[in-house]
Amino acid sequence: MSTETKTPKVVVVGAGWAGLGATYHLAKQGYDVTLLEAGPYPGGLVAGWKTAAGRSVEAGIHGFWYPYRNIFSLVNQLGLNPFTPWTRSSQYSPAGLEVESPIFQDLPRLPTPLGTFLYTQFKRLPLSDRISALPLLYAVLDFDNSDEAWRRYDKVTARELFKDFGVSARLYHDSFEPMLLVGLFAPGEQCSAAAALGMLYYFILAHQPDFDVVWCRGTVGEKIFRPWVQRIEQVGGKLLANRRVSDVIVDSNNQATAVVCGDEVFEADAVIFAVGISGMKKIVSSSRSLQNRQEFRDIHNLGAVDVLATRLWFDRKINIPRPSNACFGFNATTGWTFFDLNALHDEYRDEPGTVIEADFYHANQFLPLSDEEILPLVQRDLSTCVPAFREAKVIDSSVIRLPNAVTHFLPGSYQYMLPGVTSINNVFMSGDWIITRHGSWSQEKAYVTGLEAANLVISRFSSGSKALILPVEADEPHIQFGRSINQTIRSFGKTFLPDIWLP
Question: Is the pTM above the cut of 0.85?
Answer without folding.
Answer: yes
